Amino acid sequence: MDAEISSADVSGPALSGTTGGRRRALCYDKQYPLRIGIHTSIAGALDKAAHRAAELGANTFQIFSCSPRMWRAVPPDADEIRRMRDARARFDLNPLVIHDNYLINLASSDEAVREKSVAALRGELTRAAAIGAEYVVAHPGNYRGGTLEEGIVRFARSLIEAAAGVKTNGLMLLLENTAGSGAAIGASFEELAAIRELALSRADLPIGYCLDTAHCLASGYDVATAAGLREMLKAAEGALGLERVRVIHANDSKTPLSSRVDRHEHIGRGYIGVEGFRRILTHPKLRAKPFILETPIDKPGDDARNIAMLKSLCRKSRTTTK
Ligand SMILES: [Zn+2]
Ligand SMILES: [Zn+2]
Fold this sequence. Notes:
Elements: H1 3-10, E1 35-39, H2 46-55, E2 60-63, H3 78-91, E3 96-99, H4 111-131, E4 135-138, H5 148-163, E5 172-176, H6 189-200, E6 207-212, H7 213-219, H8 226-239, E7 245-250, E8 252-253, E9 264-265, H9 273-282, E10 290-293, H10 302-312
Parallel strand pairs: 1-2, 1-10, 2-3, 3-4, 4-5, 5-6, 6-7, 7-10
Antiparallel strand pairs: 8-9
Bound molecules: zinc ion (2 copies).
């Protein structure tokens, strides 16, 4: 995620017209049902995010379950949750991914911040389970004030504390790779794997991974080229296990390979480029994964254009939406 998304989330565009009457044609390849989606705003009500996603032609989506820049969160009410479930069933929106709050830093060397972060993640997991989301995506945090190893250990401990006793309802936590700026943990797959290893046996929920294409490029995995994508997949297979990579964040990158700077760009306009995304979306080891956009909305329609762009790069027969 980057900052550009969050402002759109708070003041998302109003729904244009009705969504209910527009049933999309199902052209469905059961073997590889393509899942393309986008981060959408919950402004107004939870289920509005589902309607916005369907309206944009998505069949998977991501939301914040509360304001991404506030510690306090209001639990969603039962009516809203029911409407969300109905909308997801009606528009075949699967999976639902919740991105965690930006303020959370489970690796913090400041004990007060760490404790606040544990409570906030606990809230994220509780809300996600109530909403019926499949995944919560979490950033591995920042080890400023200590060493990387200490940060990784603190993150694992915090995660175990946050999940203790929460009824997670099949929910899986996904560790997202990062661009690796400053003291951010998660620029290498080995760091993500180390957290999982440490937390797995004692955490009350399953742990997988989310790979962000822009973060891959910025942290030094050259997903823009055929050879680089092969290398990245080899590294992911070795360190993470590709079956544990449950979601791909499909973002082009405004910054070049190994820049360590996290700036998302419209698909095809950044350093990954159209051919880079065509290879990523159609790769036999990736094509069955859900691809979720977190691209900027610089002008109205950018969200729909990025979805259309991703779809145009895949074989038509594999999508479940028009
Ligand atoms: Zn993120
Ligand atoms: Zn991301």
